Amino acid sequence: MTGAMAHAAGMAAEDQVEAHYMRSGRTVAARRWRGKAGEIDLILRDGSGLIFVEVKRAKTHRLAAERLSTRQIQRIRAAASEFVAAEPAGQDSEMRFDVALLDAAGQIEIVENALGP
């Protein structure tokens, strides 16, 4: 897949995941939020809590999950720490880390707390 096609596919996947979360009552706090540590695909508000979401797309959910590296997990956690620094509760903010997996058919599988508490 070319760079432009991959970018468009990634944006479409994030759109689908965002719509999925919004149907369940969550609101978007940020999309493609970038801090010094890196980028977070989606940040959603769930009541007073936050959900940090990494979106992965591949032919199958299993292949999508395999694309999440240890380095990415560390980057997401560090970026989330930067984001919550500006929240009223700071580092004590209620939060979780989800991974949203999309397969070639557009089916979404959300793995809640995929990166641990």
From TrEMBL:
Q: Which InterPro entries match?
A: Restrct_endonuc-II-like, tRNA_endonuc-like_dom_sf, UPF0102_YraN-like
Alphabetical list of PANTHER family matching this protein: UPF0102 PROTEIN YRAN
The text of the family note is: Belongs to the UPF0102 family.
Protein name, per record: UPF0102 protein OEZ71_05760
* Originating species: Albidovulum litorale
